[in-house]
Specification:
The protein has 294 residues and is an alpha/beta fold. It folds into 2 domains: 67 residues, Tetratricopeptide repeat domain (Serine Threonine Protein Phosphatase 5, Tetratricopeptide repeat, Alpha Horseshoe); 190 residues, Rossmann fold. Helix content is 46%, strand content 21%. It is built from 13 helices and 11 strands. The strands form 3 sheets. Strands 3-2-1-4-5-11-8 form a 7-stranded mixed beta sheet, with helices on both faces. A two-stranded antiparallel sheet has the order 6-7. It has a two-stranded antiparallel ribbon with strand order 9-10. It is elongated and about 60 Å long. It starts with a helix and ends with a strand. The structure holds S-adenosylmethionine.
Length: 294
Amino acid sequence: MIADRRYAYGDAAFAEQDLQAAFDLFEQTLERAPNWPPAHLALAKAALALGDEARARATLERVLALDPADHLGAALLLARIGGKPVADAMPAAYVAALFDDYAPRFDSHLVGQLAYRAPDLLVAALDRYLPGRHYAEVLDLGCGTGLMARALGSRAGRILGVDLSPRMLEQASATGLYAGLEAGDLVTFLGQQPVARSDLAIAADVFCYLPDLAPALAAARRCLAPSGILAFTVQTHPGEGVVVGEDCRMHHAPGLLRRLGVEAGFTLLAEEEAASRRDAGRPVPGALYLLAVS
Ligand SMILES: C[S@@+](CC[C@H](N)C(=O)[O-])C[C@H]1O[C@@H](n2cnc3c(N)ncnc32)[C@H](O)[C@@H]1O
């Protein structure tokens, strides 16, 4: 009880930018509950905000020791300060927990408040580059609550969805738009699909949760029919390679995406700047890609 209260006060102090007070309160929380990962994570965030990277790093290592599956996303923060490779920074348990928690308010918050439009942008691009095309077999990768299926409408025939978050899938199921839904990682799911059968594989605002896109692109290529299309949005950054952004998502460099597309056996059909949503009132830098089987 006392630990809970200290933690709540710490949270409030952090929100008010009273960083030293927050740090002290999280330390006091840990005196009473030394093995509680959320308090260690909160302490690490306060240490980071105070500029104490060494303390933040040690505390994040402790979170990972207490919770090796990393439901809280400590590895992401570690990667941001160079304490872990970016490739290991997005554990499945974290993504599933994040979206299980977000699921009940996903549509209203994202679409209503953050002007989310990745599915609409992808559909508009498909219509522009491939007007009138119908996609009989569709794989919706990271389908979430089913907004992509809704946006595709009559352009799509049979849609299969996959997502790491069971709660998001419950909502996708309620739409009645999916012929099948699977809980799990999209690369594993793609590996289980028949070879060269699908007409469209689509990932709206999902690849920002995958540090290394090479396995996903190769696995999608394997499932796509000779005229198949892989369509996706990403968050981008002006540098090279992939980085963990301040928003704790993966930001990919356009040059990297073009190279990975070609290496996986695709031709670049479209590459456009596209902001999937707004953050703090500003469009989030991003791009959309349509890749055709080559
Ligand atoms: C921002 S939501 C977008 C959902 C949906 N595509 C849409 O446009 O509304 C990202 C979704 O991707 C899922 N996700 C992230 N990484 C994944 C992975 N490796 N395999 C399967 N699903 C994943 C998350 O669970 C989440 O539901």
